[in-house]
Amino acid sequence: MNGGFAATGLIARPAQVWGAVRLVPLVREEPLVGLRLDRRVYKVGDPSIVEVGDGTYYHSFIPHAFVASWDPDGDRTAAFGTQLQERPVTPRNARMKMPGRRALRRMARGVNNDRLRFLPMHLAMEGYLALHFGGPSIVWEEWTDRAVREGLSPRMEEAYCGYAVRGLADALKVFEIHRDQCGVALYVADTLASVFVVPHPSDYRALHATLLEDLYGEVLFHYANYVEAVPDFLVEIEAARVSSLADLRRAAAGQAGAWERFHQLMLSGLTGEGAYTSESVYRLGPFELSRFLPSFRLDEENHIGERIVHRDGRLAYCKTFRLSAAQVRRGHLLSTLHAHDWALDAAATALHTTPSALARRIRESGFEGLLRQHVVERLEREGRR
Fold this sequence. Notes:
This protein is of the alpha+beta class and 385 residues long. The chain contains eleven helices and 18 strands. The strands form four sheets. Strands 1, 2, 3, 12, 13, 15, 16, 17 and 18 form a nine-stranded antiparallel beta sheet that branches. The model is unreliable at 78-101 (pLDDT under 50).
């Protein structure tokens, strides 16, 4: 199924700027009824272990979960509770018992017939980590026994918590929250860092501060440190064209429309047609929870994310994460290998390189354990010749 981010039902308001941080409020003319979001807070401490399924475990810092409550008939519903503590669960596999580590069951788990607990942003990140996780599909000579037997286990990626992004805490504290605001597009040094959308303005007010606990890419952390400030959006109305309140309203509406068009251009790296593939995760009555991956276009914006969409196409919930250039290269490399059945010669031809250069790229991407050492040495000799 194709699809990524589509801001159906949302309107962008003029941005607010604090240093290198730009927040673009996303508002709804009418709240999306039938679905509400709240969070379940966990103790901040050691990283958590999450059972993904098939004996696979996901290990990460998880400060909270979201609880989605919905009405099967699409009627109005209220957010369910706040500040609840989830009892730690012992992993089924005794080998995974690790002192001081909390274990949670599943990325997304139904609480009852109309509530779902899921780990925000981790659904999308687990989808990226699981990309071609099984490793080589054909036992070629080049791949080690471990690569064939265990695939890419373990996979690791690094991200920064929002508290580490300079200026973000101050920006969230001083920025105005619009009355009908249901989301925000966050930019650092005018680079899109994340989009966060919820169904109802009350949900956004309750979850606004969770942006500090979200995951952000390495490039955004560095941009926040090295870029002092970005220009603010200034409204320019020609006084000569305004002679009445009606003229002023038309001019203001024109400026709002210009900002909306400009923001759509800024989001073009996330909203490109055919650039993302989506995977359904859970059905919530008339809503569907899914996650999406990019096509790993080199030297372009690539985002991963998760979303809840109503059957009529309206976006109820969304969280996105911008991948770093290195993460994009790893995704592109794995996708190319998978597309050519992990045959080095065929993949090297598709990448317009040589098998020896491809072997070097695999090792530099952190997958050196996948290739047999004598094969690497042979390819290097052939490359030198």
